[in-house]
Amino acid sequence: MISPLLHDDPHTVGPFRILARLGGGGMGTVYLARSTGGRTVAVKTLHTRLAADTTLRTRFRLETDAARVIGSEHGAAVVDADPQAPTPWLATEYVLGPPLDAAVEGSGPLPEPAVSALGAALAAGLEQLHRSEVVHRDLKPSNVLVTAQGPRIIDFGIARAFGDEHLTNVGSAMGTPAFMSPEQAAGLEHTAAGDVFALAGVLVFAATGIGPFGGGAPTDLLYRVRFGEPDLGRVPPPLRPLLARCLAKDPSQRPSTTELRTALAADGVPGDHRGFADLLPDAVLREIARRSDEVWREPPHRLPPPVPAEAPGAEPAPAPGVSRRRLLAVAGGALLGGGILGGGGWALVGGFGDDSGKKKDAVDRPKPPAALWSTALWCPDSGGEVMAVGRNLAMRAGIVLCGVNAESGKGTWQASIEDIWRSATDGTRVYALRRYQDAAALAVCEVAQTDGQLGKPLVELSAFAGKEQYNQLLCVDGGVAYLVAKAASGGRWYLVAADLGTGRERWRSPVDGPQAQGAPPALCGTVVGSRVVLCGSPATDSKFLGLSVHDKGSGRRLWEFSETYAGTPPSHLVTDDRNLYLGADALTARRLSDGELEWVVGMGQASGDSGSGERRYGAPVVQDGVVYCTDGDRGLIAVDALSGTMNWQEKGLSGRKSLRDVAPAIGKRYAYCADDKGVRAVDLRARQAVWTYEAEPVVLTADPKGGRLYVRQQKRTIALPLA
């Protein structure tokens, strides 16, 4: 329910103006808030006094990730977030509907068809969550919102990944006693089956008005959950056998979320929630309508601070509101229809290039630029490059693939494609393999750049095992998808070319399967002219990269070679139309035509300032016939790509530790390098560093057309002007 702000509640959080309180507890507060454009959101903040607790901060970040995974169909879509702010916060769409406990309290137990529809939708939401290997761990009636379109699951404050014990000690029970699983009540591992147990408890409550183990003191509830039998006497008879299975003490005896969803939807309730409102009691629909109206009313006045008896308290002016006419216009569309883009969850933060408080440079010395935008997108350790998709961008963010507006940094869509190796772009469209959990055959689909959903398969190859997790989409070029996939029979792995226009396989060529646990068969692959270049994934303890080149027309292997390599293996190949370039103990150019070395720089020379166990040369980049990379900790070098002749070496660099796994980015005036101080701009004419932008870069990407340098850090992505 909406209540007045306290005197010390914030006026703004991130880009949102705070209007009222929605709730609060020992961990944080939830506010009603509005953006400058008039969008209404719910903003959850962690209490300031708890922000220094790294465990709670991590849990808050995981809550944000889980909310992004479940998305707007089954949850409250993430609009914006900054888990790393001094006071961490998360903004989601404001869902128009009461919590299930309030709905049942106000209208009584739901009729059987509504309970079945509710359960089918909630099971589908948990199914989506579990596919991303996340469990909710606190599903209860107050964490289910009832809307006209269907239920939404919220509050992932104690959600976590399968098998992750970092945030929960064995022997400690976290959750709500009345809806815990027996294993959770005992302080043991709570898996997806535990969420099924909790969902059954929620459905018993929806059907009867009380949980399956009654009420009372927490200790009594925990005992009944672990050892007592559930009370299903008032549950509609058609639902009892299924819910009894879900409430089995042994997790292995419970149905999966897929089985549960299928069984509950068997009565003809549509899985996409059409007609859900028709199944709800009139009292619940009236409450939904009341909340829809309440959110646009003038917010309650902020409560004044407590004052001494002798001092008169001045009542502050009410927070400014948006005109009623405009609110009604917006209400008719954005809120009642969901009003959310699928890729929310990004914050605009400025001032990253501010030099205030620092010693000023000489008058004629360039200064680091101010950020064009900054957004809280988590960058993976590998595969975090920013990809151009038309006029906008795509990049990995934690366990999802996101679309980002290149001008503003705002999220435009997100797709739950957990594995980096299962998506690719041709520069215009984004493609992905269908979820391996759902796919009988290998299928390539286009990712919609409106909501991140996968379309109908463009290619569906029954000769390959669709349920293989390590099937890989390497790249898409000229309307052809190049994949590494496992055959449906025989267990062999192949490099495959599939025509997206005809939907047919063009050719296949045998390759090695996965060499290390948890890794796909190949690190990366690309098309160069008439050839397909493949870099195989090394074994866990191997220091070799397997390189091979195949004929683009037939798939015939032209050559293969094992290259020694130290450090993080490359996530993309650096080529021009003649050579493949690698930076390791030496900087090498290997001919694409026959695999022979074209030239070598650094072989047999002293390693300079390279640290012990590190390769000497950093990841290279090639542009306009020049190969750029770092030489140990001595700075950037520029090498002629045709001959291997050294063009120049950076001057005057000392006291810096090069980040060898981060390739330089090249602009017209500057080359940008990553080191332990940040992003260093090297003047291409003067051949020395002129400024440093303080950051901890994981990936640098230059966008010459857009005039931007993208700096991806572990927890934030920044756009700088590219000079």
Q: What are the salient characteristics of this protein?
A:
723 residues, Phosphorylase Kinase, domain 1, Transferase(Phosphotransferase), domain 1, four-stranded antiparallel beta sheet, 11 helices
Task: Give structural notes.
The protein is α+β, with helices and mostly antiparallel strands. Among the domains are: 1-48 and 77-93 and 298-309 and 321-336, Phosphorylase Kinase, domain 1, CATH 3.30.200; 100-287, Transferase(Phosphotransferase) domain 1 (Transferase(Phosphotransferase), domain 1), CATH 1.10.510. Helix content is 17%, strand content 31%. The chain contains eleven helices and 42 strands. A hairpin with a 2-residue loop joins strand 37 (670-675) and strand 38 (678-683). The protein is globular. Residues 159-174, 268-274 and 309-363 have low confidence and may be disordered.
Q: Give the proportion of residues in helices.
A: 10-25%
Overall strand count: 42
How much beta, percentage-wise? 25-35%
Q: Low-confidence spans: pLDDT under 50, at least 5 residues?
A: 159-174, 268-274, 309-363
CATH architecture annotation of one domain = Orthogonal Bundle
